[in-house]
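Worked problem 6 (solution included).
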Amino acid sequence: MKKTLALLFLCLLAPATLVTAQTKYENAPISYSESEPTDKVFQLSKALADGSKELVWDQQHGYLKSLLNNLEIPESSQGLVFSKTSLQVSRIDPAHPRAIYFNDDVYVGWVQNGGVIEISAADPKLGGTFYSIKQDQAAKQKIVRETSRCLQCHGSSHTRGRPGHIVRSVFPNETGMPEYSLGTHLISPLSKFENRFGGWFVSGTHGDLRHLGNSWMQKPAKTGYQRFNRQPQELDREKGANQTDLAKLLNVKPYLVPTSDIVAQLVLQHQVHMHNILTEANYAGQQTMYDAAAMNKIFKRGVDFESDSTRRRFDSASKKVVRALLFCDEVELASPIKGDGDFAEHFESLGPFDSDQRSLRQFDLTKRIFRFPCSFLIYSDAFKSLPDGVLTRVYAELNEILSDENKDEEFAHLSGQDRTAIREILSQTGVKLK
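Solution. The predicted structure is:
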């Protein structure tokens, strides 16, 4: 019954165009559900199936710690979300938030006393892929691929109509249920800070900036018919600001770390946005090549012939990737940000570094998230696996934009020093723009 109610809840959130959107990515050339993934979670699932790897169980967290270790996901990436916007809604509330952990390619969701651990990945060809593993020591260790159940939300207009990921900010009430009449926000680096973190716990400092996190709306106690007309109180933004001890808000002992680090969440927001852009470009490129091959065959043209339409489609996809990579329209931070965990130090240590020990993972956190505004996901399999017609154009555009002569106002946020530094870092860390 609980599973039915959870699925019904997700269906209510899905847009009316869901069937149409799913039909597109279930057809050739994507054939989403029929295609075998290649992402790191699927690779682990095969290793568990053939016995070459095994997960270790512990009584408090089940398979969580072992799963994170196998997928190389740091515990410090933990973000706690208490809004009822997940499959296991009946087990989530402000006293029992869901924990989200991530690295560059994989996201893991854990709920106290949950029946499953929810996992998703950025597959190089398929975009967002979704999995679950039962929290049952007696059951066979098996990672199961999820399609239709997760795609109710993760393959909708929230994810550009392709399988992808979501960071959402809501106005939660005291149970964690969003007050949908007040609206919701899909969050990315383009989002105003004041609209972020609704339904999330946030630890760390952010000066004069205010957000929607660490708070929920209390409803006045009324009975009878009046209960249906209660108006929620507003979120207390001051109470939720600059929290460095989440133990004052909830029992943090059941979680791997006592934090829900603001820096980790800022990275998560960028990364989800970037992954969805890459998936959109990947799908557009695959579809363009598929259509071009069919038309070239009909008109007996060479296999490499590019029509004006084909060029325009590749150009459109590449421009979106370049804008996202270079943080165009990123909302400027009005106050410095400081996390309260080990995430920032761990993240920066991953590199790669150039000869001056500079890296795209180094933080700024005074005016913008990163010191050098070019996404670290340029090193990811999701980026490197973009169709050639898109990828070659991305490299060409980056080469032009990062040149000293480029005066495009769209990239005016990049100073001359930024452009030179990014170009040097990319060149020395294996990204060749020419």
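Discussion: The two ends are 57 Å apart (CA to CA).
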